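Structure tokens
________________
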Amino acid sequence: MTPDDYGRDHHPRCFSIWMTGAGIKPGTTIGETDDFSYNIVRDPVHVHDLNATLLHLAGVDHKKLTYKYQGRHFRLTDVHGEVIQAALS
């Protein structure tokens, strides 16, 4: 697999999600894709940031929540992830 091989071209670089309630700011759009919905052109959000935000909305600090695997503690957001403040009301 090469760095340019993104599988079957099912929008490998972007995703959409609707979020409502739980402290989400109503009517907010974060990020933008090109006319083909293929490439991100503005305000990208990494999946680790999305996970950190969802955990924050559930009242969980993503930096403290860990699970033990093979004797080591791992975070669900790995060493990444920042809460998306623009999404919060």
